[in-house]
Specification:
FAD binding; 448 residues; binds flavin-adenine dinucleotide
């Protein structure tokens, strides 16, 4: 197969590296590519939405999986879909909704491939009810280093090593997913505007269980008694009866347009204290407390998908996302982390706080019971020091960072955050004894 030399980045655009990229169209072509890998190894890449470098492999091979784009079958009665791994969640939703079928786990963007969703074992706003993506995978076909196809299920250790294994156990080429049923493509949303972080977390803790989806946005510019003020939004799928008359005619409509693509023209420093304060004030004020509003997929789940390539707005230096989970009972550490961000002068607009439910069997899957917080921080002087301080806080509180969002921590920190990593390494070593699967992230964090 022809390989093209390409410079790749993650969504944060912080660490470009050049690799030979191939786009196989069949499983046999994936096997052929693996056989051609040299000592710089190979890694699968989906839609490049991980923020850092897990889907890059400097000087080696990268398998762009978007060529495996076939949905093999939809079983409406059993509520399952059998799909190639390069298919995006966006495409799946468009094909499934007419059958009243819904993917139980949806991240903050639909532009994620099935393989990438498995590789990071992604979570959504429904984690406290639905768990993470691999909790809904019935089986997957994994091509391992020896070119063999393994069909693995949740009974297999290899399944759980691949869930959240960041592409380092092999290439997922196909998966069978379990689905939920919905009457409509809309949500019935309760919004609460809350004046400070303590009250926001208290409110979110009280009756999250009544809602399928739950998430808070919080303000990183508010100080003093308004520290961490925010907007709590929680929702359930709207039933047909919930919809206003004009929406009832087409209740399963995929109502989620992309309106424009952001051009690559932004200078560094566009997002500063002044612009961030103005944005946060506006965002806070525009969402007063209101219960029972009907919102479409984009409004409630994926507002960012209205804009294509919005990461360009951060300018050429790029940005990183800092996402941690800190166990329940350490709310003091969550509050301290917000205070540290405010004091540092680093600003973020997309600030998310959510409560995770139980984790699963995977040694590297990120979610565990606790508070997960995510902020998008533009790269500028002093950011490394802030993040190092946050790492220490997260470690002391017994928390961890999310590999799909990670781009700058140390191997020592990851080793301490993921105490079952050796268990994962053992399963991986059994199927890839010579270590052909490797990525920039795997080298940087000494994962394998
Ligand atoms: C705006 C935005 C919002 C997001 N919101 C969330 C969120 O709410 N929750 C969440 O969990 N994540 C979220 N993410 C992160 C995203 O869901 C994950 O990074 C996901 O892995 C990206 O999938 P991808 O197809 O782009 O994979 P890539 O970024 O290309 O790759 C990610 C990892 O998956 C591996 N991989 C990809 N395809 C395969 C394959 N076929 N076989 C084996 N391994 C493979 C890669 O090797 C790599 O390690 C968000 C990202 C963005 C940009």
């Amino acid at each position: 197969m022809d390989a093209e030399l390409r410079t790749l980045v993650g969504w944060g655009r912080t660490a470009p590296s050049t690799a030979r990229v191939v786009v196989p169209r069949t499983v046999q072509e994936v096997i052929d590519v693996l056989r051609s890998a040299d000592e710089r190894g190979v890694i699968a890449r989906g839609l490049g939405r991980a923020y850092g470098d897990p889907a890059q492999n400097a000087g080696g091979l990268v398998i762009d999986m978007t060529g495996l784009d076939r949905i093999h079958s939809i079983d409406a009665e059993a509520a399952t879909v059998d799909t190639a791994a390069g298919v995006s969640l966006d495409t799946l939703m468009r094909r499934l909704l007419p059958f009243g079928l819904w993917l139980p786990v949806l991240p903050g963007t639909r532009q994620v491939s099935v393989g990438g969703a498995i590789g990071a074992d992604i979570h959504g706003k429904a984690h406290h009810v639905e768990g993470s993506f691999c909790d809904h995978v019935e089986s997957m076909d994994l091509v391992t280093a020896d070119g063999q196809i393994h069909t693995v299920t949740p009974d297999d250790d290899l399944f759980w090593a691949t869930a959240g294994g960041m592409g380092l156990t092999g290439v997922v080429v196909r998966a069978k997913l379990k689905l939920n049923r919905v009457e409509t493509a809309y949500f019935k949303v309760d919004t609460d505007q809350i004046d400070n972080l303590d009250d926001l977390m208290a409110r979110q803790s009280v009756d999250d269980d009544k809602y399928l989806e739950s998430v808070s946005w919080f303000d990183t510019t508010a100080t003093g008694k308004h520290l961490g003020r925010g907007i709590l939004t929680r929702a359930n799928h709207a039933t047909l009866d919930d919809l206003p008359k004009k929406l009832r005619a087409n209740p399963l409509k995929f109502d989620a347009p992309q309106l424009l693509t952001i051009p690559n023209i932004f200078p560094p420093g566009m997002l500063n204290k002044l612009t961030a304060r103005a944005f946060c004030e506006l965002w806070y004020r525009k969402s007063p407390t209101r219960h029972g509003a009907i919102q479409n997929i984009t409004m409630f789940l994926h507002p960012l998908d209205i804009l294509g390539e919005w990461n360009r707005a951060y300018g050429p230096r790029g940005f990183l996302q800092y996402q941690y989970v800190i166990p329940f009972g350490r709310e003091d550490a969550v509050k301290r982390s917000v205070q540290m961000m405010v004091d540092s002068g680093h600003v973020s607009l997309l600030n998310v706080l959510k409560r995770f439910g139980e984790g699963n069997r995977s040694p590297l899957s990120f979610p565990e019971p606790g508070w997960t917080l995510a902020v998008d921080l533009p790269v500028r002087r002093g950011l490394a020091e802030l993040c190092a301080g946050l790492d220490e806080l997260v470690l002391t509180a017994g928390g961890r960072l999310y590999l799909a969002k990670e781009s700058r921590t140390t191997p020592e920190a990851i080793e301490r955050m993921y105490p079952r990593i050796d268990e994962w390494r053992k399963v991986r070593a059994d199927v890839d004894p010579t270590g052909i699967f490797v990525s920039d992230m795997a080298r940087r964090l000494r994962l394998t």
